[in-house]
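Anyone? Bumping this.
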Amino acid sequence: MNERQQTLFEFMQQQADKLAVQTLQHIGLTFISLFIAVLIGLPLGILIARKKQLSSSVLGVAGILQTIPSIALLGFMIPLLGIGAKPAIVALLLYALLPIIRNTYTGITGVDAAVKEAATAMGMSKWQILFKAELPLAMPVILAGIRTATVINVGVATLASYIAAGGLGEFIFGGISLNNTNMILAGAIPAALLAIIFDFLLSRVQKLNFKKIRRGTYAMPVLLILLSSFYFIPSAYGGKLTAGFTPEFMGRQDGNLGLESKYGLKIHTIVISDAVMYKAAYEKQLDVISGYSTDGRLKAYDLVVLNDDKGIFPPYYAAPIVREDALKKFPQLEKTLNMLSGKINDAVMTDLNYRTDYLHQSPERVAKDFLVANKLWQPSREGNAGIIRIGSKIFGEQYILTNMYSMLIKGYTNYDVSSKTGLGGTKICFDALTNNQIDFYPEYTGTGLLAILQPAAGTISEVTKNKDSTYSYVQREFKKRYQIKWLKPIGFNNAYALMMRAQQAKNLNIKTISNLKRYLNSK
Amino acid sequence: MIKAEQVSKHFGKVKAVDGISFEVQEQENLILLGTSGCGKTTTLKMINRLIEPTSGNIFINGKNITDEKPEILRRSIGYVLQNNGLFPHYTVAENIAIVPQLLKWDKKRTEKRAAELMEKLHLSASYLNVYPNELSGGQQQRIGLARALISDPPVLLMDEPFGALDNVTRANIHKEFKALDELKRKTIIMVTHDVQEAFELGNRICLMDEGKIVQSGTPADLLFKPANKFVEDFLKDQRLQLEFKTVCLTDIWSLLPNQHHKIDALTLSADTSLWAALESFRFSNAETIHFSKEDKEVKTIDFEQLMSAFNQYKNKQA
Ligand SMILES: Nc1ncnc2c1ncn2[C@@H]1O[C@H](COP(=O)(O)OP(=O)(O)OP(=O)(O)O)[C@@H](O)[C@H]1O
Ligand SMILES: [Mg+2]
C-alpha cells in the first residue's frame, strides 16, 4: 500500500464523486435548515418585537437551545425523529434560530419611532408598516443574523454524518478514525471554504444599498430553496435492507471495502456514528450494522453477529501498548499490566460492556466489581513514586479497561495514575502515545495492523490468517518502528462484525455474511 | 370643522390631557401653545387616533372620528412631525408618493402633483431622486410638509414642524408658510411652544397648562384680555414685540388722523402689522408713510401719530 505517498490532490481526484455528493449534501443540509429557521425565526422575531412581554422567554429558550452541545442535541433528536436527514435538519435549525430571532427583534425594535409614527399617521396598516418600513429598515441587521446562522450551520452540519445525514463530516470523521490525513483534509478544507464563501457572499448582500435589498428580499427565498434542493439530488436510493456503517468501517479494507470485494455484497448503505447505530438497528431504522463483537449493546438490543465465513475481519485482540522508555522508567509496570492477561474472554467483555452501556453502571464500579470477583483487587497504596499516564479511546470498553489498570497500578505498585480518557479515535490516541503525552493505552491487534502499520495487501492477508500471527507481526513492527511494546493480550477479540436483529435474522434465515448476500441478490 | 368635547387622556396617574374642549373653523389655523409636557402632542395625536382618548369625543365635519377605520381617517389628515419621520430607505419622490400609493393614484397624477408641490415649496426637482439623509434639516422639513400635503387633505396636523430649525431658516419658512396658497384653504392645528411662532401663524391660539386649556382666543384676545395671571406671565417677556406684531393698521384705523398729503412717500397696505410699519419707518428713513385701506382710503401718517394711536388702542382694550 502506498497510500501514505498519495497527495491530498490525488485523494480528492480519486474520491471526486463522493466529495461532490458530500459537498452538495452539506450545502443542502445547511440551507434547508437555514430556510426553515428563517421561516420560523423571522415571524417569531416580528412577534416578539410586537409583544415585548414575550421577548425574554422566547429569546431565553432559543439561547438555551444554542448552548446544548451539538452532539448531545443530535442524540436527543434520535428517539424523536430517528436517524438521517430529519433529526439533522431539526438540530441545525434549532442552532440557527437564535441569531435569526434575536436580530429580527433587534432590527425591528431599532427602527426609528418617528418613522413608525409617520407611517401610521399616513394611514398605513400594520402589515404595510411591517413590509414597507420596518422590515426593509431592519434588513441589514436581520441579514447579519442570517449570516451568523449560516456560518454556524456549515460548521455544525459536519456532525450530521453521525446520524446518517451525510455531508462533509463523513470524510472528516472517517479520516480521523482511519488515521488518514488526506481524508480529513478532503472534508475539512471544503467545509471551511464553504463557511468562508457563504460568509463573504452574505456580507456583500448586507452591504447592498437599501434599494437593492428591497429587491434582494425576494431573491433570497428563491436562492435558499435552490441551495436546499442540493440535498435531495444525490439521495435517490432505496433497497431491501438498509445498512448503517460507521465512517471508519466505510473506508476500511477489513470493512465495507472487503465486504464489496470479497463477498460482493451490495447493500443500500448510510453512514452513521457508532453512538446511535445499535439503537437505530433496534428501532428498525437500520437492518444491518457494523458493530464490535464485544459491544454491550449487542446484548441489550438483542442483536446477533453474522458469521464472517470468508474471514475478512482480522482478529482484534486487545492488549496494552506501552512506550519502551516508560517500561524502563516504571519497572513494576509491565508485570502489573500483565495481571489482566487471559482473564477476560469475549462473553465476559460483552457482559462488562452491557453493564456500563445498558445498565448505566459507572466504569469504575464495573472495573472494581470484576477485580474483586477475580480476587485481583487491592486497596490503593497511595504511592508517589511517579505518575503513570493512561490513555483511552472514546468508548466504554476502553474506560472499563483503563479503570482496571488504574486500580491494579495503585493497588500493587507505588506509582500514581493520571487518566487521559476520551482521546477520540485511534489516531489521536496513538499520536498521544508517540508524543509522550500518555504512557500506554489498550489497543487492538487488527487496528494496530490496519490503521497504524498499513502494510501492503499481501502482508495483510498473510498475517491475518490467525490471531497469533497478527499479534507477533504487530509486536515486531511496533517495536522496530515506534519503540512501543505490545504486552500480553487480555483475552477477548473485539473484532468488527456485521449484526442484525436476532428476530429478523431468524425470519430471513441469515446466519452468515454469505447468507445475507444471497438474500440481497434474491428477487 | 373639528370639534373636541371634554377630551381626556390619562397615562396611569398622569393626566396628560384633562377634559379639554375646543373648536376649529374651516380654513382656520389653530395653535396649541404651552410649556413642555402640558399635553399638546397628546391632544394632537388624538385627532388622528395615534392615541385613543380616555374619555370624550372628537368630531370632524360633525362625524365622530371613531366611526371610521383609523387608516381611512388618517389618509384624509396630513401629519407633520417635529423630526419629520421621513423613510430613510425611500427617495424623496418615493416618500412623497406614500399616501398617493395608499390611495391608489396612478403614477402620472402622483408625479405631476409632486412636481407642483416641489416648486411651491422652493425645492429643486433634482432632489426627487436623492435620499433624505442627503438633504439639510430645513429641506427635510419641507419634504415632510410636501408628503403631508400631496393628497390635498382638508385637515393638517403639525407637531412643532419648525422646532429643529435655526432662527433665520425658521423665519424664512414662516414667511413661505404664510404665503403658501395650499395652506390657506386648509384647517390646521399646529403645536408649538414658541410664542412668536404662535402669534405669527395662528388665527387662534389655545394656551394649555397641565392638560387643560387656560385660554383660547385670537392673538389679540390673549394679549389684551388675558384670562388670568398665567396667560399674562406666559406672554410677559415678549409682550411689546407681540403687541406690535398682532395689531394691524386696520385695527387702529379709526384712531389715526384723517389726513392725506400729496407728497412723494412709501405706500403700504393697511393690513400690515404695526411691527412691519415700524420697520418701514426705520429702514426707509421716511418721515411719513401712506397707508391705503382697500385702495379707497389713504392716510399719510408719521411715526408719532402711529405710536399715539397704538397707545390709545391699548388703553381701550384694557
Ligand atoms: N405614552 C405615554 N406614557 C406615559 N406618559 C405619557 C405618554 N405620552 C405622554 N405622556 C405624559 O403626558 C404628558 C403630556 O405629554 P405630551 O407629549 O402631550 O406633552 P407636550 O405638550 O407635547 O410636550 P413637549 O412640548 O415637550 O413636546 C407628559 O407629562 C408626558 O410625560
Ligand atoms: Mg410634544
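Late reply, but here is one note on the structure posted above: The two ends of chain B are 32 Å apart (CA to CA).
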